Amino acid sequence: MSNLSNSPPDASANKSQGTAVPRPSVIQLAIKEKSALYAAYIPLFGTGGLFIPTSRDYQLGDPVYVLISLPDDPQRYPVAGKVAWVTPAKAVSNRIQGVGVLFPDDEKARALKLKMEALLVGMLTSERSTQTI
Question: Is the pTM of this model over 0.85?
Answer without folding.
Answer: no
